[in-house]
Amino acid sequence: MRAQFVFSEIGIGLRRNLTMTIAVIVTVAISLALFGSGLLIRKQVETMKSFWYDKVEVSLYLCGEGSAEPTCSGSPISDPERQELLADLEATPEVEQVFYESQAMAFEVFQEQFKDSPDLVENVTAEALPESFRVKLRDPTQFGAVAVAFQNRPGVAEVQDQKALLEGFFNFLNKLQLLALIIAGVQVLAALLLISNTIRVAAFSRRRETGIMRLVGASNLYIQLPFLLEGVLAGLVGAGLAAGALVAVQAVLIEGQLRPNLPSVAFIGWDDVLTTLPWLFLTGMVLAGLSSFVTLRRHLRV
């Protein structure tokens, strides 16, 4: 009987404040969707880092004819210098694998990369491209040790870390994640204020019923429980909508469009999405419950 009374009071409260309840649900849904997006962006950054950092290489460009690099003396690298450099690279503890790329091989790669720009390809010859050693590191973060050891070696024109080329992109993703979390924080604050105001209005509209319940000896918890559950229910419905939005984005955008069209890019999977969804429901329930509880304890005398 008591449970039936509590649920009936929840229904009455939702009907009396339907417009405000809908506003709470929408605001909670938007804030949690942005919060979940921030978490997924972080996972996307981590996924792409682990995928690309495992593939990036350090390139040691060698001195050739007419090289303008200050580390080159004007003469191309000699065979003994090339062999000594290769042996030292292979003996370096941080190096996992070394691959030599001649000028002819570099030109073939150049032609493949710029095959859609025939004018550019026609104006470049193999002799204009430097030969190089492509070095795969055991730990991509140890580029500094290799750079210090080989930067000023005879015959080495430049040491380039491909990882540095990706840092700008990853920094952009990190800033995007931060922006999503900041906007989510603002939306959460708005949701808390809406929930608090909704609970206050609901309690005020039922002040006669709550007064009678207190006169007949009802406990504070029993009087406040319907209001608490109203807030929690609104938070859970909003979390459900946010979860549906993230699932739709994963299914339509990532799985339906990005992954088939960009097979060389590592995207988050369903396991990442499914591990994020419980946090949305937990966050929505806790925020709504705490907001309702604080409102009833500090601002209302039911």
Protein model, in words:
By secondary structure, the protein is an alpha+beta fold. It folds into 2 domains: 2-52 and 167-298, no CATH class; 54-163, Alpha-Beta Plaits. Helix content is 70%, strand content 8%. It has a 4-stranded antiparallel β-sheet with strand order 2-3-1-4. The two termini are 21 Å apart. The mean pLDDT is 76.
Q: Write down how many β-strands occur, each being a DSSP E stretch of 2 or more residues.
A: 4
Number of domains: 2
The H-and-E topology, N to C, reads as HHEHEHHEHEHHHH
Radius of gyration: 31 Å
* Mean pLDDT over all positions: 76
Tell me the major beta sheet: 4 strands, antiparallel
Determine the fraction of residues in helical runs and give it as a percent range: over 70%
Classification by helices and strands: alpha+beta
For the biggest β-sheet, the strand order reads 2-3-1-4
Count of discrete alpha- or pi-helical segments spanning 4 or more residues: 10
| Tertiary shape | elongated
| Span of the ends, CA to CA | 21 Å
Stretches with pLDDT under 50, minimum 5 residues: none
Strand content: 5-15%
Summarize the structure.
This protein is of the alpha+beta class and 302 residues long. The chain contains ten helices and four strands.
